[in-house]
Amino acid sequence: MKKILILLFVIIYAAASFAANLADKKAELSRVKKYIRSLDAKIVAARSARKINKLAELKDLKRRQLERAKLIRKDIAELETGEKKPEVKKEAKPQPKPDEGKRGRQFEVGYGGGTLLLGSAYSFPFRNLNLQAKAGYGIGNGYSILDAGIRALFAVRGNKVGVELGMANYSETVADILGVAGNIDKGTKLGFGVFLVRPVFKYTGRIGYNTALGLTASLLYKF
Question: Maximum distance among all alpha carbons in the chain?
Answer without folding.
Answer: 116
